[in-house]
Design goal:
The protein has a single domain, classed as Roll (Ubiquitin Conjugating Enzyme), CATH 3.10.110.10. Helix content is 41%, strand content 12%. The chain contains six helices and four strands, in the order ααββββαααα. This is Ubiquitin-conjugating enzyme E2 2.
């Protein structure tokens, strides 16, 4: 019986040592993010950019230009991205840091977008490990011009989008501050 218990203990400790450590996970996340950064730099997509902070590779700042022929045309939006320790198997947390008036963005900058939810979460998440920073930013840029009014975070904006585009544009411009204005105001 003692040898059986010893075998079980050895098997248990072997299982623990074969599990990836958090430092291994973090190294994998950093490697993935470095690869994504290189892709963004070597194959830039017009209207989007993103860079990590100087001190933390898992915290990025991004810029998205408003799509043409939308109320957001010629506007620039800043976003923050925070990558979890299990990225790319879980989505980054993405927030608008520039104030934005939009049906799928709340006043705190949180975004309701299916690809920003883990797959299987309530059956509605569409995150996949094949997605990356560039695809997330392109999806957000697309969302600006094509809101999902059936799942609004800002009900007033959803109603106004369908009812009166002229008034909607006025609200967009009233809420928006260019990134340089935000910095000058200490935000």
């Amino acid at each position: 019986m003692a040898s059986t218990m010893a075998s079980s203990a050895n098997a248990s400790s072997n299982k623990k040592s074969s599990a990836p450590s958090s430092s291994t996970n973090n190294a994998n996340v950093i490697k993935r993010l470095q690869s994504e950064l290189m892709t963004l730099m070597l194959s830039p997509t017009p209207g989007i950019s993103a860079f990590p902070s100087d001190t933390d590779m898992t915290r990025w700042s991004a810029t998205v230009l408003g799509p043409s022929s939308t109320p957001y045309e010629n506007l620039t939006f800043k976003l923050s991205l925070a990558y979890p320790s299990n990225y790319p198997y879980a989505p980054p947390e993405v927030l608008f840091t520039t104030p934005v008036y939009h049906p799928n963005v709340d006043m705190a900058g949180r975004i309701c977008l299916d690809i920003l939810k883990p797959a299987g979460k309530g059956g509605e998440g569409a995150w996949s490990a094949v997605l990356n920073t560039g695809s997330v930013l392109l999806s957000i840029q697309s969302l600006l011009g094509e809101p999902n009014n059936s799942s609004p975070l800002n009900g007033e904006a959803a109603l106004l989008w369908d009812r009166d585009q002229v008034e909607y544009k006025k609200k967009v411009l009233a809420r928006h501050q260019e990134p340089a204005e935000l910095e000058a105001n200490g935000s």
